Amino acid sequence: MAFRLLLSCLFSLSSGFSAEISVFVQTGDSVQLDIQTQELPEFDDLSWKKDKSENIVKYTSESKRVRLHSSYKDRVDFNNKTFSLTLRNMQKIDSGIYTAVAAAESDNNIVTYRVSVIDAVEAPVLTVNSNSSSPNPCNSTCNGSNIIISFIYDSSSCSPEKVTSSDNYILRLSCNGDSIMCNYSNPVSWKTDTKKVNELCTAKTGTYCIHSDL
Ligand SMILES: *[C@@H]1O[C@H](CO)[C@@H](O)[C@H](O)[C@H]1NC(C)=O
Ligand SMILES: *[C@@H]1O[C@H](CO)[C@@H](O)[C@H](O)[C@H]1NC(C)=O
Ligand SMILES: *[C@@H]1O[C@H](CO)[C@@H](O)[C@H](O)[C@H]1NC(C)=O
Ligand SMILES: *[C@@H]1O[C@H](CO)[C@@H](O)[C@H](O)[C@H]1NC(C)=O
Ligand SMILES: *[C@@H]1O[C@H](CO)[C@@H](O)[C@H](O)[C@H]1NC(C)=O
After folding, report:
1. What is the pLDDT of residue 18?
2. Total-model pTM
3. CATH architecture of residue range(s) 6-118
4. What are 181-191's pLDDT values in tens digits?
5. Rounded distance between C-alpha atoms, residue 141 and residue 128, angstroms
6. C-beta contacts of 37-44 below 8 A and 24+ residues apart
7. Would the CB of 130 count as within 6 Å of ligand 2?
8. Residues 146, 124: Cα–Cα separation, whole Å
9. Which of 127, 156, 132 is CA-nearest to residue 142?
10. How many CB atoms lie within 10 A of CB 168?
11. pLDDT tens, residue by residue, 31-87
């Protein structure tokens, strides 16, 4: 809460400047960074910088010359009309702060992005308890590599339904009729596993009794 308040204060103090925009990119994918404004202040040159140091691209307004950083030039597109920057084949090492700076008598930050490059999630593994003698046959487990939940199926609904990890990975369950779906997601991807519910859990009490008598 305090953090959110602080952010909004910073935002209102720096009116005219943009707040940081958070972007998640899947490893190997491209990302397009736009300047997010129609009206640029007058400038001599415009650059896209990574972590305030490397100039990925520098565009000089008088000569219209575009200069690309040697280590980016094979995987970068700069649009000389919209000034947007497209980076291809993003890797985790490319995570960081990207800023568009228009320079005249002084530098003017146009937009700042916080780019996070993360892998797609691995498929979750849903294991349905099929042991009719276990104390709770309706207890099942879904394993999404960095979150594991054990849950109870109770007349078409699951409990708990959702667990979120600190780094934005989410494991979400939906129990519907005789099937359970486990959906494992992060900001760039999602994968699911679906299984039939243990028949003991969908059956009426009477059926359950007959079953256990056998
Ligand atoms: C923009 O880039 C295109 C393609 O490289 C080029 O043909 C064009 O002359 C450039 N325009 C300006 C204004 O620099
Ligand atoms: C089933 O559950 C019972 C009670 O927990 C246990 O004794 C038995 O070994 C389990 N059977 C299997 C196949 O896991
Ligand atoms: C469900 O099963 C898991 C693994 O067998 C166990 O760790 C968990 O405590 C069980 N939960 C309940 C409510 O029985
Ligand atoms: C959950 O999945 C991960 C990754 O596949 C595996 O390393 C781990 O042993 C699994 N945990 C359980 C309790 O099955
Ligand atoms: C899985 O979760 C993601 C993220 O919440 C969602 O976009 C997607 O539609 C879900 N998939 C299914 C099959 O429900």
Report:
1. 54
2. 0.76
3. Sandwich (2.60)
4. 999 999 999 99
5. 7
6. 37/110, 37/111, 40/83, 40/102, 40/110, 41/102, 41/104, 41/108, 42/104, 43/102, 43/103, 43/104, 43/108, 44/103, 44/104
7. no
8. 10
9. 127
10. 13
11. 999 999 888 889 999 999 999 889 999 999 999 999 999 999 899 999 999 999 999
Take residue 197 and report the two structure tokens written for it. 């519910």
Residue 119 CA, ligand 5 centroid: distance in Å:
17
Domain boundaries along the sequence of the chain: 6-118, 125-212
Q: How many other CB atoms are found less than 10 A from the CB of residue 114?
A: 13
Tokens of 12: 């209102």
Is 145 a pocket residue for ligand 4 (Cβ < 6 Å)?
A: yes
Report which secondary-structure segment, H or E, holds 189: strand 189-196
Please report, as a single letter, which amino acid is at residue 90.
M
| Residue 201: pLDDT band with limits 50, 70, 90 | confident
131 Cβ below 6 A of ligand 2: yes
Convert 30-67 to b/e letters by CB count within 10 Å (16 or more is b): ebebbbeeeeeeebebbbbbbeeeeebbbbeeeeeeeb
